[in-house]
Specification:
- Helix content is about 35%, strand content about 15%.
- The chain is of the alpha+beta class and about 270 residues long.
- The strands form 2 sheets. The protein has a 6-stranded antiparallel sheet with strand order 4-5-6-7-3-8, sandwiched between helices. The protein has a two-stranded antiparallel sheet with strand order 1-2.
- A hairpin with a 4-residue loop joins strand 5 and strand 6.
- Helix 2 crosses helix 3 and helix 2 packs across helix 5.
- It is globular, with a radius of gyration of 19 Å.
Length: about 270
């Protein structure tokens, strides 16, 4: 057995259950997916034990989210080759998730004031880089966010998220003006700040987050940002501790397989 296989087996031996559903672990899952990072160079410490079914089911939707994370990034570091491969992969596997780039000038004019995006005054509004996300896109993002919630809960709370726990997630593009208020309000309440890294490799500020976990109620909250792309909030708590909205759903919904239904094959 090679060194890589031995490391994998030691990891699975010390983490015998899938972080997501609790069944026997068979694979090592990267969360967030390696596709979400430039040149697929991901941060250390974000490998999780997973059963084969949970790992495989996530791939297609993670590919979709990775495409939008790179498409929505405004730090000027888009890796062209990887980006084109993601477009081709989504077009081949799940074309219903591709954005609509034929947005009318009037629709772009209505959208621009919502963003911290300096569109040149002498440039026609019709040329603004605004795309419309399809409704199906919400399902891909929600599946991604709920898996991320389960993974970070497992990492920082030291246990598998119970099926009876309720999960609520929310997302906003980093350049939306509402993102500034969201971060300013939420971040001070989440005292544990993490900037993910990789030893001997500068991966920049591609994935960072704040989190808080209550040991008594087993409530977990995080606010994460991917470069200058998207900001995510996730909450996991017991039924009796739900606050702030009616759009919670139990983790048992995820374990039932709803997150990966009706999509084609893809890479995780």
């Amino acid at each position: 057995m090679g060194a890589s296989k031995k490391r994998k087996q030691r990891f699975l031996d010390s983490h015998p259950q899938c972080f997501f559903c609790g069944e026997a672990s068979e694979t090592v899952d990267h969360i967030p997916s390696r596709e979400c990072f430039r040149n697929r160079i991901w941060p250390e410490g974000y490998e999780f034990p997973a059963c084969r079914a949970c790992n495989n089911a996530a791939g297609p939707l993670e590919q979709v989210v990775a495409l939008y994370l790179m498409m929505g990034n405004h730090d000027g570091e888009r890796p062209t080759t990887q980006f084109q491969k993601l477009i081709a992969g989504v077009r081949n596997n799940n074309p219903q998730f591709l954005p609509n780039i034929n947005v009318s000038a009037n629709a772009k004019k209505r959208a621009l004031p919502l963003y911290n995006f300096p569109h040149p005054a002498d440039e026609p509004v019709a040329n603004a880089p605004v795309a419309e996300l399809p409704d199906e896109n919400r399902r891909a993002f929600e599946a991604f966010e709920r898996r991320l919630t389960c993974a970070l809960y497992y990492k920082h709370m030291g246990e598998i998220l119970p099926p009876t726990h309720m999960i609520r997630t929310f997302r906003v593009q980093a350049i939306q003006k509402s993102a500034d208020d969201l971060i300013r309000t939420a971040a001070p309440m989440l005292p544990n700040g993490i900037l993910t890294r990789r030893q001997n490799t500068d991966i920049g500020s591609q994935f960072f987050y704040n989190w808080y976990g209550d040991e008594t109620t087993r409530t977990f909250v995080f606010l994460a940002q991917f470069s200058l792309s998207f900001v995510f909030i996730g909450v996991a708590c017991r039924l009796e501790n739900m606050e702030g909205g009616e759009d919670y759903r139990p983790h048992s919904d995820d374990i039932g397989g709803s997150a990966g239904e009706d999509v084609g094959a893809g890479r995780g």
